[in-house]
Every structure is written in C-alpha cells, then in structure tokens.
Specification:
This protein is an alpha/beta fold and 161 residues long. It has one domain: YbaK/aminoacyl-tRNA synthetase-associated domain (YbaK protein, Alpha-Beta Complex), CATH 3.90.960.10. The chain is 26% helix and 25% strand. It is built from five helices and eight strands. The chain is globular, with a radius of gyration of 15 Å. The N and C termini lie far apart (29 Å). The model has no long low-confidence stretch (mean pLDDT 92).
C-alpha cells in the first residue's frame, strides 16, 4: 500500500488519526526538527533479521529509546539479530530505508514478520508512524495500530525494552 492507500484503509475501518504532511525525513533527529513530539509519541521502527536470515522482526519503540540488539534477541528468543538489508526491507515490506513503519505489514503477504512492541507504548493514545512514506506522519492510538497488525494475521510480541 502506498501512503494514500493506507489513509483510505484507516478511513474505511473508522480508525481516527491526525495527519501531518512534511518534508521527507530519514531519521528520528529529522522528525525532532519538525517538533512533531508536541502531538504525541514518535515511534522508532527497526527492521531486523535473525542470524540465518530466516526470521524478520519489526521492532517498535519510542523514538528516543536505545535498543541493544543482543538484549532484545535474548528477550524474544531470537538468534543473533542484525539490521536487515535494504533489499530485504523492500522484498518483505515494500518499503525503503527511512520509511520503516508498522503499516508496512499491510504489504507483507506471507505474514512471516514478527512485530515486537515495547510495552512502554501500551495505552498511548497518540503514536506517530509514517504511512509507508516518510513525508507524512499519522498519529493514532496504540490499540488501533495493534489491531491493524493482529487483524492482518501477523504475529505480535510485547516486551520490556
């Protein structure tokens, strides 16, 4: 799905969100310059793979949080984790570097991506995600993005990071 298709999808499901169009951003630091933190929590999303590349993970944490890949792997029972290549990102989620988002799961037809949410996000009413393009940020509730992912058939884990 492209960004407008994601928006149409949310509208069709009656999911409330607040939309902010902006210049293309590639990092959390770029988003900080836009002062979108005033509207809610900005999520940082990491696309990882296990040691043999057979399992992929989409990690969702607060934007300012540091993630220790070794500790994360231990918590989720994964072999050594590393960042997936841009090629894998495009093959699995149809996304480009800098636009990793849980909405990419809507593009994942084989449903083999494991989505890992930091428990710290639970209950948040306004979390900012790109809708598969990094020139827009949508703020929606944790329960809504969680429901989109689980209804789509993807596995979800919640861990303390």
């Amino acid at each position: 799905m492209k960004k407008e298709e994601v928006v149409e999808f949310l509208d069709s499901k009656g999911i409330k969100y607040k939309r902010f169009d902006h210049n293309f951003v590639h990092t959390i630091e770029d988003l900080q310059k836009l002062e979108l933190y005033n509207y809610g929590v900005i999520a940082k999303n990491l696309f990882l793979r296990n040691a043999n590349g057979q399992i992929h993970y989409l990690i969702v944490v607060k934007g300012d949080k540091k993630v220790n890949l070794k500790e994360l792997g231990e918590k989720i029972g994964a072999t050594r984790l590393s960042f997936a290549s841009e090629r894998r990102l495009h093959e699995c989620l149809k996304l480009t570097k800098g636009s990793v988002t849980p909405f990419g799961i809507l593009n994942n037809v084989d449903k083999k991506i494991v989505v890992v949410f930091d428990k710290e996000l639970a209950g948040e009413e306004k979390i900012g995600f790109h809708p598969n393009s990094n020139d827009v940020t949508l703020f929606l509730a944790h329960r809504d993005i969680y429901k989109i992912i689980s209804d789509g058939g993807s596995n979800i884990m919640e861990v303390e990071l």
